[in-house]
Amino acid sequence: MNITKLTDYSLILLCEMRVGEVISSQALSEKTKIPFATVNKLLHILNKGGFCLSKAGKNGGFILIKDHSEISFLNVIDCIEGNKTHLTECATTQEKQCQLKKHCKITKKIELIDMEIRSVLSNKFLSDLL
Prior knowledge:
This protein is mostly helical and 130 residues long. Helices cover 45% and strands 8% of the residues.
């Protein structure tokens, strides 16, 4: 299971934001030292994922709309990584499956381990980082 830097950066950005407070991409970039272009890219993805709203205008920026205690690691990982973070190919339900899945003796165990990992991630929240 490999989580990209973009997910790591997203966790950092979300932890810097507060519910109801507008903060600009530039301010987040300066506070976190994450490059401005990357901050912009991630905030747009997080906006589409329902974590924040964008506010246009002179005093515009982004507003966190969920409390840190309501945002699980898994929510963020799935938003940024596209819901493809699984232990192995056989643990996914996607079309592209391992060609050995039908005959593999460990598939069921791997699927269980994958579900356990995802369960742990769904029960860890941004508030655990603060």
